[in-house]
Amino acid sequence: MSEFTLLIGYRHTSSWSLRGWMMMRKTGAPFEEVMIRYRRPEDKARLLAISPTGKVPLLIHRLPDGAVRHVFDSIAIGEYLAEIFPERQLWPRDQTARAFARSIAAEMHSSFRDLRDRLDMNLLARVSGVQVDDEPVASDLARIQSIWTEARQRFGEAGGGPYLFGGFTIADAMFAPVATRFRTYGVTLEPVPQAYADAMLADPDMRAWEDAARREDPPEPRPS
Ligand SMILES: N[C@@H](CCC(=O)N[C@@H](CS)C(=O)NCC(=O)O)C(=O)O
User: Fold this and answer.
1) What global pTM score does this model have?
2) For the structural domain made of 4-87, what CATH number should be given?
3) Cα→Cα distances 121→16, 117, 185, Å
4) Which of ligand 1's atoms lies nearest the C-alpha of 15?
């Protein structure tokens, strides 16, 4: 049995699963991936038996002494992995950069409800004609572009990589699904945020997730 198991949901639509999965992949550690089709009652029951929230992602860490830790909620998974794999620098090393990275990761976790509702994650779809220039969606879009631009210009551009702080961090994992949403709905971005979104979509792990989504049956309809 693998030391780490990550429970995830539909690769097409489960944005929180993608976040947790990207964090796990960036540790470089091997892990078992279990996909739960949580819209099927039997799978939902299986998930509820393991996960205190009944939601994915859920990280299971089996320790050599037999102890088992369950870490639920994407941001907690990121914090946990950053602690277990300090050498991977899942948070930026510089404290000022790290303070900003933590703030924007938390902001992504708690905010942008209007944009998330309007631009549902639908990884492989391409949809035209969705309005993003009306309030409050337009403010969410402006704020995300401003976060990406500030991170790139203050930290990323000097940091030797195409991500918000140079190398990939938990903040990037939190915004990864947003880059896919902008592509799905053909949202036009300013040059700096667009370059960042392009880098995210070209990330080898992001591509691996997308390849796996192509091999996966689409989600069942939401239970009524
Ligand atoms: N705040 C949680 C959100 C987790 C969440 O809502 N996951 C969705 C999939 S994207 C889920 O498990 N849904 C199962 C259900 O609603 O039955 C996190 O950050 O991990």
Assistant:
1) 0.98
2) 3.40.30.10
3) 10, 9, 10
4) 10
